[in-house]
C-alpha cells in the first residue's frame, strides 16, 4: 500500500532530518520526498510518498508529536484524508 503524508513544518535546523529518521525507525519505506517553502509563512511544506503494508495513521500520530511539525495530513487511495494539527501548547 502506498500513501502520502503532507506536513507543514517550522523552519528549524535538522527538522526534516528528524521526520525522516522517525519514518525510517518505524519501518516505513520512503519512495519520494518533496520539500518547498510554505506560501505566506516562514515554514516548510513537505510531501512524503511512503510504501508500507502498515497503516499510516499510527505514523501520523507519531509525526504530529514532533515540535517542528505544525500539521500533518495522510492521504491514500483507500480512505479519506486524516489531518492532525500539532496540539502542543506553548508555555
Task: Looking at this protein, list some descriptive labels.
alpha+beta; five-stranded antiparallel β-sheet; Alpha-Beta Plaits; 2 helices; 91 residues; 5 strands
Account of the 3D structure:
The protein is an alpha+beta fold and 91 residues long. The chain has a single domain (2-78), classed as ACT domain (Alpha-Beta Plaits, 2-Layer Sandwich). The protein has helices spanning 15-25, 56-64, and strands at 2-10, 29-37, 43-51, 69-76, 82-85. It has a five-stranded antiparallel β-sheet, covered by helices on one side. Strand 4 (69-76) and strand 5 (82-85) form a beta hairpin. The longest helix has 11 residues, at 15-25. The radius of gyration is 12 Å and the shape is globular. The N and C termini lie far apart (40 Å). The mean pLDDT is 86.
CATH second-level architecture = 2-Layer Sandwich
Percentage of residues assigned to helices: 10-25%
Strand content: 35-45%
User: What is the β-strand count?
Assistant: 5
- Total domain units: 1
CATH class: Alpha Beta
According to CATH, the homologous superfamily is ACT domain
